[in-house]
Design a protein that fits this description.
The chain is mostly beta strands. It contains ten helices and 33 strands. The chain folds into four domains: 94 residues, Jelly Rolls (Sandwich); 117 residues, Immunoglobulins (Immunoglobulin-like), CATH 2.60.40.10; 94 residues, Jelly Rolls, CATH 2.60.120; 111 residues, Immunoglobulin-like, CATH 2.60.40.10. The N and C termini lie far apart (118 Å). Pfam families: NDNF, NDNF_C, NDNF_N.
Length: 569
Amino acid sequence: MRQCKGWSVVVLLVLLGLGSVAQKLPTRDEGLFQMQIRDKSLFHDSSVIPDGAEISGYLFRDTPKRYYFVVEEDNTPLSVTVTPCDAPLEWKLTLQELPEDASGGGSGEPEPLDQQKQQVTVDEGTELFTYKGNDVESYVATSTPSGLYQLELLSTEKDSNFKVYATTTPESDQPYPELPYDPRVDVTALGRTTVTLAWKPTPTGLLMGQPVQYCVVINKEHNFKSMCAAEAKISTDDAFMLAPKPGRDFSPFDFVHFGFDNGFGKDRGLTSNKISRAYAAKPRVSDIQKVCIGNKNIFTVSDLKPDTQYYFDVFAVNAATNTSTAYVGTFARTKEEARQKTVELKDGKVSEVFIKRKGSKFLRFAPVSSHQRVTLFVHTCLDAVQVQVRRDGKLLLSQNVEGIRQFQLRGKPKAKYLIRFRGSRKGASTLKVLASTRPSSKQPFPSLPEDTRIKAFDKLRTCSSVTVAWLGTQDRNKYCIYRKEVADNYGEEQRRREQNQCAGPETRRKSEKVLCKYFHSPNLQKAVTTETITGLEPGKTYLLDVYVVGHSGHSVKYQNKLVKTRKYC
């Protein structure tokens, strides 16, 4: 056995800063290794790579970092694996040329510390392997001489994380799960918001009985070559605020934002010793997601966006050591939204449109003749809807519409108009739409006041009648009032179902009709009418509806009203 073993130990003791304490370095003496690997303080931020354990490190840009590894006997196998995380790395492995004697006189006394450090740092040694890139790369040798091995790493792009694993027993260790003969991830099913993935299981769990689970990473940018690269990206996305610049004063908002009591900002006094709760960042949807699914090798990713390209990576993870191996990732574009049938609008004709909850509907208007202007009428029957109008692809209009609205659009010869309606989140929507190029086209729907409520006069209630009032307009329109007896527990949800403004008097029973009358007033301040409804039962609840009918026959319903007659008179 060469004397270099004792010299190597001395050098490593210096690097570890352990002074003259006699501490045997980690080798594959299994009992000693298990004891040492549990002592995290031994390898934390040191320059020694333990035999048979993966370590994590951090590099500052353009600042090399060196690690050392001892091979105590000749003809020893050696495997060194480097995993870049955030950025490509340059790394090289060298065997240090160490002197045969620990000192010049051969007395066995160690040389002065400065001479030992100089010998290690100045002597470049024999270069065994070099690599530059962001792949997980390994140096493997079946037989190596004893000595001190130096691993030097450099990141030239940015500060970066990395992982290193070194072992002298690569055949028995197998720290990283083994990939199957076909390491590809396959897309087995593709939908608008889902993608199903499948891959062949790792033989590590089946043959060697090691606990293996799979983790799937989904993002929109690129595939990842290692789990550590994906986790570095996730950590970057989770960062929610940069540190304030030196000398910057904090405003009261800053203290509240970070979770401190707002009273600090009021009087700037440090009188309170109350500990505030920690600040919690608001959850947000990240561009990268990681899901660990146990030992299943089929997984369906859901809640994706239609017509969007995603990248999928699968990692086999050794649950005992947390080491991982990357499968060959894949990518796929989700399917487009199903193209809806476009409704053709006819010039001057009313079309009824039904929209599902949060759904969309497209209408196309292509005037035959040349035109200068297009008048668009929209009557929403239930909840408000969003309307967008494009002329030959150019956006002309985008806003929410409730009730009856009229829009004037500038025309263009041979222009085609695409109208898109989007439903509300509350429920399905129904509306009536009319588009016309005729300059003298009259309003197809009756005009409405701003307030379409029905007012009931409590003091005028009797056991058999109620008196109500509603507003009108300056246009002479026909008003029809209907009544319907309902249960005492008639609720708001039932009222909403009855509130379809597009359902006209023709949908009602003749027995529910009270009367119809014409009404208008040149003075809007006096455009109000009253009506007493008789023939009611004592102590009963009634639903009242008022319909206003326009010249073209289209009707609009006011907001319905619940009334109750007196039980005793």
